[in-house]
């Protein structure tokens, strides 16, 4: 298996960890963050990264599959038809996460991709200092964009009533417990498993719409594996959703994107995908 080089990401991951550890409270405007996410999606539809330039900070960094790159290269060279899009917003850390599922390009040719992008803004002027994307395509682990599209359309993630929302600390702890199951024998016990719950790994879905659906099938039983490191978070309490980008060290340092949805303190949905080879 080809091993991905992760060293170029460490400074980015450290910056994200610093934001979390220092308790920066940006209270950024949700509508403004969504507006740029809309611009980002339009730029991907047009295959024109230049459409983003006026909003980028001088120290802007683009990361694709855990490697720093020129934003005009990589996935932004392709004009894509977006079949599914969902954006969640973190007003505390001035960030968004956008999930895109694509089956064809703008010309109608097959172009299967699943893209998860965390976008981070400076608090002062909302300029974008980081776009951090995980891009999956044919040949990646359990990848099938048509299958992924089918399953994501079966789910409804409505806003959580304010009185029923979990704290960002609780949501983060749940995600961290899940992602620690590979190297921590007690982590699974700390995950607030809900029932029903459905897990989408690539295009493989554990649910069937029944009341007993579970996210537990296939969870790690070997807890002596390499960890999932360099975690970067976007947390939207209003949606009960957390996005975590990381390095799956036990899969050859594969770039990975996981997303979790909590309702009333329980994990109800999990999505995972990345650039690991199938």
TrEMBL record:
Pfam families assigned to the protein according to its UniProt record, in alphabetical order: DUF8021 (PF26061)
Signal peptide from the UniProt entry: 1-26
Domain DUF8021: from-to ranges: 165-269
Protein name, entry field: DUF8021 domain-containing protein
Key words, A-Z: Signal
The organism's taxonomic lineage, starting at the top: Eukaryota, Fungi, Dikarya, Ascomycota, Pezizomycotina
Natural source organism: Eutypa lata (strain UCR-EL1) (Grapevine dieback disease fungus)
């Amino acid at each position: 298996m080809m091993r991905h080089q992760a060293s170029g990401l460490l400074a980015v991951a450290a910056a994200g960890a610093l934001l979390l550890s220092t308790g920066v409270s940006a209270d950024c405007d949700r509508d403004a963050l969504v507006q740029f996410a809309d611009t980002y999606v339009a730029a991907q539809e047009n295959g024109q990264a230049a459409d983003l330039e006026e909003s980028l900070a001088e120290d802007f960094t683009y990361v694709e599959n855990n490697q720093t790159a020129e934003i005009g290269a990589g996935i932004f060279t392709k004009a894509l038809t977006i079949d599914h899009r969902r954006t969640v917003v973190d007003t505390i850390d001035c960030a968004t996460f956008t999930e895109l599922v694509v089956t064809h390009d703008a010309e109608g040719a097959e172009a299967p991709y699943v893209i998860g992008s965390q976008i981070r803004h400076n608090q002062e002027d909302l300029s974008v200092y980081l776009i951090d994307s995980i891009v999956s395509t044919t040949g990646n682990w359990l990848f099938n964009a048509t299958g992924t599209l089918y399953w994501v359309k079966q789910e409804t993630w409505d806003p959580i009533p304010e009185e029923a929302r979990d704290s960002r600390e609780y949501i983060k702890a749940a995600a961290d417990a899940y992602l620690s199951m590979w190297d921590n024998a007690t982590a699974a016990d700390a995950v607030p498993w809900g029932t029903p719950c459905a897990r989408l790994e690539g295009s493989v879905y554990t649910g069937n719409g029944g009341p007993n659906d579970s996210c537990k099938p296939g969870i790690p039983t070997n807890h002596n594996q390499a960890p999932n490191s360099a975690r970067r978070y976007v947390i939207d309490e209003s949606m009960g959703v957390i996005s975590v980008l990381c390095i799956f060290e036990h899969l050859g340092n594969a770039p990975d994107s996981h997303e979790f949805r909590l309702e009333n303190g329980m994990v109800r949905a999990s999505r995972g995908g990345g650039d690991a080879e199938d």
